[in-house]
């Protein structure tokens, strides 16, 4: 292969996260509503009929479909479908930092303001209930953070003879932080709590 050919191919390459083509893409919305005592964050409790994470607390969201113009529109679409509201009820939609999940997901979070919240009619197929928490609660209270370590377990036929150290190779352990908020008996944790904590860091 000639140098010119190599350079031409490199010039045409648009960098992405290596291996991201195998990742599932999700978009979520951190919804804000106005109440008499100020701004609240709205949460969903996932329907107990759902196969994945039934009964857990989350934000509206889901997988980015090929028909979605972009991740932002996917987050808006999912919010409309799950909360039973109109597109006009969602304004001031802004992106937060996207997340690369260790479980093979790219997550694109957004925050947006929901007007006429009294019109919300949750989709019972996906949402068991909704509730809100004053934004001031999260501003004034840091999350509790716990650590989880993942252990490396090579498959049975792993070629230890090809690496320095062989079976005694010193694998790096991978850890993640799990965030927890507890409000009036409701536990907000995992990715939802991590997105929420990031949002609070921005507005503080």
Automatic annotation (TrEMBL):
Classification via Pfam families: NUDIX (PF00293)
Keyword rRNA processing: no
PANTHER family in alphabetical order: MITOCHONDRIAL COENZYME A DIPHOSPHATASE NUDT8, NUDIX HYDROLASE
InterPro entries (UniProt xref): CoAse, NUDIX_hydrolase-like_dom_sf, NUDIX_hydrolase_dom
Enzyme Commission no: 3.6.1.55
Keyword annotations from UniProtKB, A to Z: Hydrolase, Magnesium, Manganese, Metal-binding
Superkingdom, natural source: Bacteria
UniProt organism field: Neobacillus novalis
Cofactors, names only: Mn(2+); Mg(2+)
Any GO molecular function: metal ion binding
Domain Nudix hydrolase: residue ranges: 24-157
UniProt name for this protein: CoA pyrophosphatase
């Amino acid at each position: 292969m000639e140098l010119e050919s190599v350079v031409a191919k490199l010039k045409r390459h648009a960098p992405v996260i290596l291996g991201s083509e195998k990742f599932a893409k999700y978009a979520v919305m951190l919804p804000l509503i106005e109440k008499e005592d100020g701004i609240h964050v709205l949460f969903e409790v996932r329907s107990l009929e759902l196969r994945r994470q039934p009964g857990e607390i989350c934000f509206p969201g889901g997988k980015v479909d090929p028909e979605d113009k972009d991740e932002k529109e996917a987050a808006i679409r999912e919010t409309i479908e799950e909360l039973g509201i109109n597109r006009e009820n969602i304004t001031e939609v802004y992106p937060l930092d996207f997340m690369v999940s260790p479980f093979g997901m790219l997550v694109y979070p957004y925050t947006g303001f929901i007007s006429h919240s009294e019109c919300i009619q949750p989709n019972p197929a996906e949402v068991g209930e909704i509730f809100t928490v004053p934004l001031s609660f999260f501003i004034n209270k840091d999350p509790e953070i716990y650590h989880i370590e993942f252990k490396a377990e090579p498959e049975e036929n792993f070629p230890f003879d090809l690496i320095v150290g062989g079976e005694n190779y010193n694998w790096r352990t991978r850890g993640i932080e799990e965030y927890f908020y507890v409000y009036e008996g409701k536990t907000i944790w995992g990715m939802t709590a991590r997105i929420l904590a990031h949002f609070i860091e921005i507005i503080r």
